[in-house]
Batch of 2 targets.
Target 1
Amino acid sequence: MEMQPELCRVEDALGILVGKWKPIILLILLQNGTKRFSDLKRSIPGITQKMLTNQLRELEEEDIITRKVYPQVPPKVEYSITEYGKSLEPILVAMHEWGTAHTLHKMKKSQQTLFRIE
Amino acid sequence: MEMQPELCRVEDALGILVGKWKPIILLILLQNGTKRFSDLKRSIPGITQKMLTNQLRELEEEDIITRKVYPQVPPKVEYSITEYGKSLEPILVAMHEWGTAHTLHKMKKSQQTLFRIE
DNA sequence: CGGCATCCTGATTGATACTG
DNA sequence: CAGTATCAATCAGGATGCCG
C-alpha cells in the first residue's frame, strides 16, 4: 500500500486514540455497546468525573461515540459506540496484541541486564 | 481474542507511538531501513533538531530503533529500525488506513453541515 | 446522577543560541 | 553534522467544589 510520509494519515487515528483513558473507554464500549456514565466510571478505576466527561466529549466530537440523555430524575446518560467507532477496533486489537508481545520483550531485556550484572 | 479492560495492553503500544513526530519517523525508517540524522531532518518539515534528537532517543530507549555513530569529521550518525521496531508496522498501517477512511468521513460530515445550513 | 467551573501542576513542545 | 543548553509557551491531566 501507499504510505508515503507526505501522505501520512496516521496522525488522525493517533489523535483520536491519544488521551489517558480513551483506549479503555473504547474497549469497554466495544465490548458492551452501550454503558451509562456511572457504569463507565465504576469500570475504570482511578478516573475522575472530570476526565471521564472530558474524554467522552472528545470521542463524541469525533463521532466515535454517541451520547443519549434521558430527561428524568435522577439523570441518566448513555454512551454508545458508533458504527464508525467500531472501525477503530482493528487498531485497538493490533495495539493490544503488540502490547502483549511487548511485555515479553521487556522481560527478556531485564533478564539480560541481570545476567550482565552477575 | 481476550481483550478485557483489566488486561488491556493497548497503552504499551500507544506509549511508544505517542509523540508528535514518532509516527512519521517510524514510517520513514520502515521504508528506508536506515537514515542519517540530517536526512531525517530534511524528510520531516517543521521538526527542530531538538525534537528530532528527543524523539529518536525515546525510540532508541524502547529498542525500536538503533543509533550508530561513525567517529569521523564531520560526524555521521545513522538511525535504523530494529526487527522489534518492525513489529509496529501493522499498527501503523492500520492507523494509516483508518486515517485515510477518516478523511472521507470528515468530508461527508462537513457536507451534511452545508446541507443543513442551506 | 451527571455534569460544569476554577485553579493548579507537571510534562511536552518549541525558539534560539552555542559547540566538538 | 549532530548535537546540547536554556528559556518560554502550551497543554493534558488532576483536585476540588458547586449545581439542576
Note: Strands of chain A lie at 34-36, 65-70, 76-81.
Target 2
Amino acid sequence: MLYSRALIPTVKEAPADAANVSHTLLVRGGYIRKVGAGMYDFLPLGLRVLRKIENIVREEMDRSGAQEILMPALLPAEFFKETGRWDLYGETLFRLKDRKGGEFHLGPTHEEIVTDIARREIRSFRDMPMNLYQIQTKFRDEPRPRGGLLRCREFLMKDAYSFDTSEEAAKESFEKMRQTYCRIFDRLGLTYRIVDADPGAIGGSKSAEFQILADSGEDAIVACDTCDYAANIEIATVKEPPLVDDGEAPEDRGKVHTPKVGSIEDVSAFLKKPKEKFLKSLVYVAGTANDPEDKRGIVLAVVRGDHDVNEIRLARALGVSEVFLANDTDVQKATGAAVGFAGPVGFEGKIVVDRAAAAVKNAVTGANETDYHFTGVNRGRDWDGEIADIRLATDGDPCPNCTGKLKTYRGIEGGHIFILGTKYSAAMGATFTDDKQEKHPIVMGCYGIGISRLVATAIEQHHDADGIRWPVSIAPYHVHIVTVGKDEPVLATAKKLYDDLRASNIDVLWDDRDERPGVKFKDADLLGMPFRVTIGAKALANGNVELKPRTEPDPKKAELVPVADIARVLVERVRAAL
RNA sequence: CGGGGCGUAGCGCAGCCUGGUAGCGCACCUGGUUCGGGACCAGGGAGUCGGAGGUUCAAAUCCUCUCGCCCCGACCA
C-alpha cells in the first residue's frame, strides 16, 4: 500500500476519552474511530489486524476438525425463551420488535441457536463428536462499555460448540479445544495463563479462561510459583492451616468506644492492634434476582481483618447464585448499627465464617452498636457460624495444591472454554440415539474468543512510549518502507523493493508521502509495523538501506543491508517470525 | 443502576465563578524558506458553544429539564 493514497489518519494528541494504552494508540494510529459508546469503525489498518487474527483463529479451528458455520445475529425470542435466558439475561440483551410486534433480540452468544441445529440434525451417536463454530458479530448491552475495543457493545467473537455422547467424550473435546487455543494464542504472539474460572451465566461444569497478561487487565488471577495451579481470583482458593488450638488463653470480652472509626484500617490504628486480630463482618443479601422462588436472606460473612470476601465463593457456600453487599438501610436493619460496626456477637441470622477467621482468638469485632467494638471475642463462646472457604486469595498465600506460593497477576480474558454438560440440550430436547436404541441428551461444550478484543489486547502487551509493536503474525503490514527525500535512486530502490516484497506475499506499506523524515519516523513508530526499511541518499550512496525492527529500542540504531540483499533478508525474517 | 466528571472549530483545550466582542494550540488551504526524529514565516477558511425551556435589555456564562460521552463499582469475549 502506498501511504500517500491510504486512509491512515494519525493524530498527535491522545483522544480525551481514551483511558488505556490500546485505545489511545488505536485512535492515534488511525486504526479505529468511535461511533458511539462501545461501537467503533475499523479503518483500513484496524480491519487488516482484525482479519489477520480472525484468519489465524479460523486456520487453527479448521485444523482441529471444527466446522465453520454462520448463524444469524438477529434472532427470534423463542429460543432464549425455551431455556429461560430471555428473562435471565436481563438488560444485557438487545431486544427489538418487528413490524408485526414479534419479539426479537440481537445474539449475545449462540448456545440456544446452535442447540437448535443439533436437535434437528444430530440423531445418532455416530454423528459425534462434532464441533461447529462461527466468527460473528455479537451484541451485548453492557452496563459499562470501556477501554476502547476491550469492552464493546458490538464485537467480533469466535464461538464454537462441541457435541458429544458422554461427559468423558466432552472432556476430550474440551481438551482438544484447550490445545487449539494454546496454538492460537501462541501464534498471535500473546503471553497468557490458562486459569480455572467461574462458569458464570453461561453455566456448565468445567471452565477455563485464557488470560492475556497485562497490567491494565480487568481481571485478577493467581498462579502458583511452583506448580501449574492458576485460577481467576473469583474462584481461587488457598491452603489454610488446620484449625488447631494455639494455646492462646481466652480473654474476657470487652467493649470499647470507637467513635466514628468503622473501617478495619481506622480501628486497627485506633486500638493499636494488628489487622489479623480483627474479624471483618459484612452483611450480604443472598439470592437470585431472577429466581421465581426468590429465597432472599440476610447473611453475615466473617473474614479475618486483613482478608477480603470472595463473593462467588460465598454464594457457592450458601447454595445461591449470587450475593449482593447489603445497602446501608439493610445493614442498619440487620445489625442495629451504622455501617462499620457489624459483628457476629449477638447477630440474629445466618453467619458464614472463613476458615482463617474461624481460627482468630481474642478478636476485635463490631459490637452491632454504632461507635462501639468488642475486644476479646472468641468463637464458640461468644458466637459461632458455619465455616467455609469464602475469602479472596492474595499475593503470597500458600498454593492449595503444593508447597508453593501464589502470585497475583492482572489479565484480560481473551478466551473462555466451558463444558456445558446437558444444560441446553436437555432444556431444548437435543438428544441422540445410542447403540442400544436409547435416547440421551447431547453433552455440549462451548468455546469463545473475543477477536476484536484481541486487537486491543495485543497492543496492551506490545507497545512502547512511541507506539505499537505488532507481533509479525497480526501486523497490518510486515514491512514499512520510509523513503527520505525524493532523489531518483531512492525512489527507484524503494519501488523495486516494494514490488519484490509484494511478489513474495509480504505485506508492505511504503511511506511515499512528501513529508519531512521526522514526521515519517514518528508515524512509523506509532503504527508499529515489525520491520522498517529506511531508504535515503546517504546510505544508498554506499549501496545500502537501513533495516530496523520495531522492537529495537534505540531509535537511531539500524542495520545496514546491501540493496541487493534487502528483499531476501526481509522475506526470510518475516517468514521466520510467522 | 449507585458515585464522580465532561460536552465550546476535525482533534486537544481556555473562556463560565463575576452575563455584554467566541479565543488558543494542532490539523486544513495559499505563498515562501526548509528537509535524517512530529520545521519556520506570512496570510486564510472553518464553531447551531450537545438539545429544549426559563430568567434577563442581553446567556457559552445563571436556573430547570433532557440527550450524549468518560472514569470508579456490580457484569463479561
Note: Residues 167-187 of chain A form the longest helix (21 residues).
